[in-house]
Sequence to fold (155 residues):
Amino acid sequence: MQILKENLDKGYLVAKVDTTDKFETLKAMGTVMVEKGFVKESYIEAVKEREKVFPTGLPMEALGVAIPHTDSIHVNKKAVMCGILETPVEFVVMGDDEARVQVEVIFMLAIVKPDDQIAMLAQLVETCQNVSVLHTIKAAEDLDAITEIMDGLMA
Fold:
């Protein structure tokens, strides 16, 4: 995994992730979140278990996105880690256990206040509906633009 951008004060990281399946991806990203102090060790298993019961894959117009997260008891401080996948990874679609989506961008959430979850998810879904934003993130070439996007998410 290659960290492209991080702002620990604002609570976000952007990384290129080279993994081959969703649980390996969640573990790799979760490990970085633990190392940076955003989440507890228990976060990794909790987010993997939650993904099995409540899938987070979203087939957006531009590309597949996933927004994995878990309960606040596993979180130290609010954060978002944006993982840009080198190779798409299959996720189950949120709300449809039969459907699958090839995910290319993951927004892993660490939410401290459970009441903030709905607002954060709504903001992320709105961001992900913007085709040019997702293409900018996926290309990972304009780090200033990615910084602006992540700053907006954490505002």
